[in-house]
Design goal:
Blueprint: E1 27-37, E2 40-49, H1 55-58, H2 63-69, E3 77-79, H3 86-98, E4 106-117, E5 122-136, E6 145-152, H4 165-172, E7 184-185
Parallel strand pairs: 1-5, 4-7
Antiparallel strand pairs: 1-2, 1-3, 2-6, 4-5
Length: about 190
């Protein structure tokens, strides 16, 4: 019997059972840094975007998304650059978004989810998320963030987060993303 399954093995030249088209809702490979305050695991380093920073270059965010998400809390994060490993991406985010070259990180924890994209009405967007964790005593300062600090995420409302980043934190803590999200992201 020939399988009808469509495995997530992408290649330009079609060789059964591989595919060459992108899933209808898109596919993103992303890295997230969840850095807590030393000894306080519910205080996570989050930032509010500086809309003048080059987020298209350091975080794969176009100007419209930067504007839309600039008021909410976000984890330091980025899509992977084509051919970049998750470890290389985490190091890049440390340097470009936090100005840190020597921050120890553990991971990655890897999560995958499929959801509908609210802003574009796309159905079935697929994310593969590489989450690195670390600890530090003090929040760094970096110009790409309007505000960057440790936030008590246990006391932060879902609507105060940007881009569904509360779901990333819920993955780490073992909660289902459905417990914190309406299933729509951007």
């Amino acid at each position: 019997m020939t399988t009808q399954r469509r495995f997530a093995a992408f290649k330009k030249a079609v060789e059964a059972p591989r595919m060459r088209e992108i899933p209808d809702g898109g596919l993103c490979l992303s890295v997230f840094l969840a850095i807590s305050r030393t000894g306080r695991p519910t205080e996570i380093l989050l930032g509010r975007l500086n809309t003048d920073a080059p987020w298209d270059h350091i975080g794969a965010l176009d100007k419209a998304r930067v504007e839309r998400h600039s008021k909410g809390w976000m984890l330091p994060s980025s899509h992977l650059i084509l051919g970049e490993s998750p470890n290389e991406a985490a190091k890049r985010v440390l340097i470009e978004q936090l100005g840190l070259a020597d921050q120890p990180l553990n991971g990655p924890l890897v999560f995958s989810e499929v959801y509908d994209v609210a802003a574009t009405s796309e159905k079935g967007h697929w994310d593969i998320e590489f989450v690195f964790q670390g600890e530090r005593d003090e929040a760094p300062s970096h110009w790409v963030w309007r505000e960057l600090k440790f936030v008590n995420v246990a006391a932060t409302k879902r609507e105060e987060f940007a881009r569904g980043h509360e779901d990333i934190l819920s993955h780490i803590n073992g909660a289902s993303p459905n417990e914190t999200s309406n299933g729509l992201k951007d």
